[in-house]
Amino acid sequence: MSWGTELWDQFDNLEKHTQWGIDILEKYIKFVKERTEIELSYAKQLRNLSKKYQPKKNSKEEEEYKYTACKAFLSTLNEMNDYAGQHEVISENMTSQITVDLMRYVQELKQERKSNFHDGRKAQQHIETCWKQLESSKRRFERDCKEADRAQQYFEKMDADINVTKADVEKARQQAQIRQQMAEDSKADYSLILQRFNQEQWEYYHTHIPNIFQKIQEMEERRIVRIGESMKTYAEVDRQVIPIIGKCLDGIVKAAESIDQKNDSQLVVEAYKSGFEPPGDIEFEDYTQPMKRTVSDNSLSSSKEGKPELRFGGKSRGKLWPFIKKNKGVTPEDFSNFPPEQRRKKLQQKVDDLNREIQKETDQRDAITKMKDVYLKNPQMGDPASLDQKLTEVTQNIEKLRLEAQKFEAWLAEVEGRLPARSEQARRQSGLYDGQTHQTVTNCAQDRESPDGSYTEEQSQESEHKVLAPDFDDEFDDEEPLPAIGTCKALYTFEGQNEGTISVVEGETLSVIEEDKGDGWTRIRRNEDEEGYVPTSYVEVYLDKNAKGAKTYI
């Protein structure tokens, strides 16, 4: 099967077909190019997605990634980042191995096609020229033959006419001979041109055109083979990254299998464990004998044994926990607003950070000292005195950091001495912490006033873990409100920010429903449904000794 023999007369159709083939190749190139753009866009979106959900450095979110589930999620994000990288590899390989290569090949193909069809047109023009020459010689031969016939007929007519002179007859005879000779010459010329044309035509249809069409056929077949190879490369580029993508997916599966729910549960315990012991049983309070009430559920005073009693009033529901001051302001330096266990962890972390800083500064000091020794031995390298100031600064920094570390280590030792041994459950008794708490409770009313007479909630290091006023934000539906036992006038403005406290304005007059029992707090009421505790030093109390509701709770 050869285009030169089978399609010898389909020059124009072959020209259209080969152009269509190039268009198909360019369409495939465009397809691959758009695929690479999609891969790049997909990879970019995957990277952005992975980056979006990465934990922010030095944030609370970063601390959450200590849990195995969060670590697995972080591993998934990292694997997806690598997964995106493989799609970038696909795009790069398709661009270099297919798009660029085919674009260069298309240009070569166009040039080759142009050259082949130029040769074909040149052969066509040549055979057309030979045909025109043949037609011209044929017409000339035909014309000369007719002229010779007319000249012969004229001679015969003149020769038969007796009235024509002999000279005229001779002239006619010569003219007929000339025309006959011209016809013979035209015949010979026509015959020669005809033979040459036939030879050219045979070569055209049996040599030139088959050769040109054969080149075009080979060119077209190479194009077809090339596009097939490109399709194989297209698939191979994808196949090459499948193992790596599989590893990424295996990494995600492995991360998922590494999730340990028990470990995460333990981390929750370590993160939020306060170190307190649950409160004990509440003693029964007999309200049938009002005058014999000896224990107030609203009191923060200590028991006879010196241990603080938890106060659970008739208006407290389920608040069976030591009342620790909520951290609504700036965290104290010693983290005393945290429960003991959490405070210990914070202090330990601070000590570790300070030790790392000390080590860093120490290394820097050693490096400066070595450099100074080098300068002393080789003065041409630098002035040793130029390092004295820097060395002094680093030494001072080390000293400051050591003092800071000692301060936090002292606080840590205090907390660790107060806490029970972590490995001995039998030693976890509330008294280990309550004793310290009681000491601060009995003294919490002291130093309440700043030099200018204003109240401050800032306390000393020892009182950061004080027991505050209980939370009396709920009412018993089945009890009557406590009666007023007097009135009071606010000496200063107080912002009640803790649970169980109430805000007052300087000069405001309110009702007293429970006097100070030695804990520095007085319970007051503004309206029938708005009551709470205020510091006793903030109000001037006027008790009504004859008031029926003037009871004392200890």
UniProtKB/TrEMBL annotation:
InterPro entries annotated for this entry? AH/BAR_dom_sf (IPR027267), F_BAR_dom (IPR031160), FCH_dom (IPR001060), FNBP1_F-BAR (IPR037449), HR1_rho-bd (IPR011072), HR1_TOCA (IPR057870), SH3-like_dom_sf (IPR036028), SH3_domain (IPR001452)
Q: Residue ranges of the SH3 domain?
A: 483-544
Show the GO cellular component annotation of the record. Answer: cell cortex; cytoskeleton; plasma membrane
Bias (Polar residues) ranges: 436-445
All residue ranges annotated as the REM-1 domain in the record: 337-414
Q: Where in the cell is it found?
A: Cell membrane; Cytoplasm, Cell cortex; Cytoplasm, Cytoskeleton
> Where does this protein chiefly localize?
membrane
* Keyword annotations from UniProtKB, A to Z: Cell membrane, Coiled coil, Cytoplasm, Cytoskeleton, Endocytosis, Lipid-binding, Membrane, Phosphoprotein, SH3 domain
Q: What is this protein called?
A: Formin binding protein 1
User: What organism is this sequence from?
Assistant: Mus musculus
Q: Which gene encodes it?
A: Fnbp1
